[in-house]
Description:
The complex is a heterodimer of chains A (408) and B (132). Chain A is mainly β and 408 residues long. Chain A folds into two domains: 97-290, Oxidoreductase, molybdopterin-binding domain (Sulfite Oxidase, Chain A, domain 2, Alpha-Beta Complex), CATH 3.90.420; 297-407, Immunoglobulin-like (Sandwich), CATH 2.60.40. Chain A is built from five helices and 24 strands. Chain A is globular, with a radius of gyration of 23 Å. By secondary structure, chain B is mainly α. Chain B has one domain. Chain B is built from six helices and three strands. Chain B has a two-stranded antiparallel ribbon. Chain B is globular. Classes of the chains: A mainly beta (408), B mainly alpha (132). Chains A and B meet through helix 1, strand 1, strand 17 and strand 24 of A and helix 1, helix 5 and strand 3 of B.
Amino acid sequence: MKKKQLTRRSFIQQSTLTAFGTAIGMPIVFGHYLPQNLLPVILEKDSPIEGKHPDLTLLNDRPLNAQTPPHLLNDSITPADKFFIRNNGLPPENIDPEKWTLTIDGESAKSNRTFSLAALKSQFNEYSYQLVLECGGNGRSEFSPPAKGNQWTTGAVGCAVWTGVRLADVLRATGIKDNAVYIGYYGKDTHLSGDKNKRPISRGCPIAKALEPETLIAWSMNGADIPLHNGYPLRLVVGGWPASCSGKWLERISIRDRIHDGPKMGGQSYRIPCDPVAPGTKVADEDMCIIESMPVKSLITFPRTGAILNARELKIKGHAWAGDVSVRKMECSIDFGQSWQPAQLSPPANRLAWQDFSATVRFPKPGYYEVWARATDENGKTQPMILPGWNPKGYLNNACHRIAVRVK
Amino acid sequence: MKYKASILIATLIAITLLACETKPQTAASTTEETSVDALVMPEVNEATGLVMDETFPLIIANCTSCHSAKLITQNRATREGWSSMIDWMQATQGLWQFDDHEPQILDYLAKYYGPVETGRRENLRVEEWYEL
């Protein structure tokens, strides 16, 4: 096994080696012994990601993971350049949309069918929805004891307008057997180890969620091509659920007669303890349950934290969302949660879109304040002010968002 | 095995060059930290952000070929926690076995990237105050 891995590695090309040497300031003696896969990833520069806003925060450059600071999420519809990136592997190269195909298969598919992008566009009705995509690990950095993975603070969320065809229409055209349980996606991204037989991620969702009218096979974000790192040229968009359900660079969907078993479906990935545990508890894999709908949450997107005010009044703005359901009430507090005042809350553009809110707060005297915001969903669930239930991988942190303000 | 050893040597040479070339900086690089703190912090390698000590070349050789070191430097865990992450990568992500080096690697990770207790909610940290 180990041996096979090594022999498959191709030797590094002279040109790459020269570039590598130039970057560290001198040629690499014996560099030709370095197999490609063992070339240390050291050429990190916090250079902006192509097509993305330079102020996105880079958490990891390989695989690329970048989040959006709250004040850059102020738009009602998140622009493509401000949409976060969570890659599990490396995106495909030399993508030719003319040749891109999507195959539907699986134990519970009545037939196997392959569609070109053009066929998808011509054979099915087109729909556009504004849908929240939030990484299941958004907010992970706050958990204590610390949780493993990318240390997202608040910025692994966005709500863009997605255009495509309904997954339900495509699945029904293929034929769904009565025993269908789940769908699993396969993307064209490649594993970090370079092993062509490994997939970085292949997740999905129960058939009922797959058949919801808002669940899309999308080729467009905000009326333009999807950015490369957000899944160009084709992806799933399963609004309100961990964004890992929404497979990028989509090439195949299997209709499964069991819960999909691709990489990052099992173990501890995108799962929380079935029963609540004390912080730091070691939980066995079989006691971990798959995350479905994301919890109620909100974000203050104006002003940016750290504002110094000459006035006693401040208008705040933001968004609130609640997974599969809508947000019923939005409140804010300037006295560390002792009293709450209602905020104005807009209805969502459509089901599974976030809702804009705004409020005007008044500060009684000069000093340091924190503005806190909390949303309540239509089932009466409210965001906690401290961290919610600790879990080993640090998912689902929906503690209320806070910004700091100084009044002169 | 012999093949693997030559790779390691080559990598070590590359690292040595790298370590000589890059300007060391301190782990505490945020502007608000006092210089007293900065003095006691270990040196970090500018190119990767990893703490430099005698185990550093082993970390470069074994931990930075799939993903960048940023995935290491942003995480915090106990020795046991690091061990379980390595087990997971070995079981599912194609990471090789380290043979005798594992204890040394774990010591390094637990020493410099160990957990800090932050409780149920930390104070807000404001990077920059600005006039609105």
